[in-house]
Amino acid sequence: MESAAEYTQRLVKYGARAHKSLGQNFLISDEVIESIVLASTLQQDVPLVEIGPGLGVLTRALAKRVPKMWAVELDNHKIGILNKELKEYPIEIVHQDALKLDLKDLWGDKMGYLVGNLPYYITSPLVMHFLEQETHLSGMTIMVQKEVADRIAAPPGSKTYGILSIAVQISAKVTKVMDVPPSAFWPAPKVTSAVIRLDLRPYQGFNMNRKDFFRVVKAAFSQRRKTLGNSLAGGLGLKKEDVVERIQSVGISDGRRAESLSIEEFQVLAKAFSELK
After folding, report:
1. Residue 203 burial (CB < 10 Å; 0-12/13-18/19+)?
2. Closest CA relative to residue 132, chosen from 198, 66, 197, 71
3. Of 204, 192, 273, 197, the residue nearest 239 (C-alpha)
4. What's the whole-model pTM score?
5. pLDDT at residue 1 tops 80
6. Residue 100 gets which letter from DSSP?
7. Closest C-alpha among 154, 156, 164 to residue 123
């Protein structure tokens, strides 16, 4: 079989193009493709969907390992290529905006798995869109910009730890698979990418309303260079002295900064402020 690079070069020769407006950079590294496949849950009884198949190089490798899969693509031109090049594979191509995709429409009440080289300009909304479908998704292996991967996987106390870190980690276990250089794509992007695996699961010990929780998390990070006392007062629209008193009442120093707090500490803090709406 043609290598990923040979396959892509052949299609480019006959008119395939990468559209910048759709954030298209096509994977041409067989090594990276194999790493994505090995990192993913590909089983006979687990439905599989790929987001953004592009020219289908990763799709070919995935389709060999499952009895059927779905590939969600927005670009009409790429759909034509996929229908022609992958007609021998057990693939159903779905012409749809992935941000509007309901996994239940694909496989009903089953729990499936997602793989994708996500467009960088909508990575965070896409990740959150699928994390919210935890009743139909067990996990995902995704390619994202390295900077975003670092933010998603960041632990408390790091400079990259923030709202995105908490939003993902509260819904999934994050595993960094590998960094991917620009040379693994055509055309080569200007940034390094990364493959991460997200295993969806309830966060142990989390037992409060998520809206109330993220109200406090967002307020705390609204002015991340300031102390908790100042950022929460400004973000929640409360008097600083009342905020400081409430923070201290749960054993947390108001002089700390948001990036130093664990998810458990944010939950304690959010419960303390849940009645002050």
Report:
1. middle
2. 198
3. 273
4. 0.94
5. no
6. G
7. 164
